[in-house]
Amino acid sequence: MFKVIPSISISNGKLVLLKKGDFSNQLKYDFNLIDVTKLLEDNGVEVVHFLDLDGTKRESPTNYHTLETIVGYTNLKVDFMGGIRTDGDINKVLEFGATYFTASSVAVNNHDLFASWIMSYGREKLSLMANVSGDKLMYKAWQKKADIDLVEHIEYFHMRGLKYVKVTDMNRDGVLEGPNFPLYQNLVDKFPDMCIAASGGVRSVDDIRKLKEMGLYGVIVGRALYEGNIKVEDLREFAN
User: Fold this and answer.
1) Structural domain contains residue 240
2) Model-level pTM?
């Protein structure tokens, strides 16, 4: 079942978006977080992608209480990402109410550890986030490029049971220039049995419809939603 997953990016307790993963190029939104999440829930959203930007930068989850607030005031399922490096990080994130968790840099730096999490927590619980520039992976708060091919990276964990992967084209993230459709089509063709979510560049409902038609599992939306290019009511079309 195709899912539209709004991104809730948090820095210092506020909704913030980065352009192309650049911390010096931020878009700040003066929205009440509870109002936003309740509105999403009222329009059929079931899961939000919670990005702890402070945790990403510090390499340790930080915004636990914001996570707890969302879980406490809504019935949304939260997929937490940002700074997860250890089992202790995972357990604390789950303790504060996350249903799922997503990791990125640790999968680049420590293949064995991330692979062990697939077994320890179950393939329904975690996702791999692969951030790319060109065909190479970006990690360490999007500041470093790894000499690792995207397809090979996904294949390594796919062979070890990974089910969910989110892929962000960092050159399109937060700039409303449209998704990298050829990138996602290639991944759907290579990994037809995986649940692949697109992230980066979505600017309209038509973009979402096209990604759905391509056979993706889901799409993460951020700026287009916050700035009204996509209306919250539009999300009802994709509600389960």
Assistant:
1) no
2) 0.94
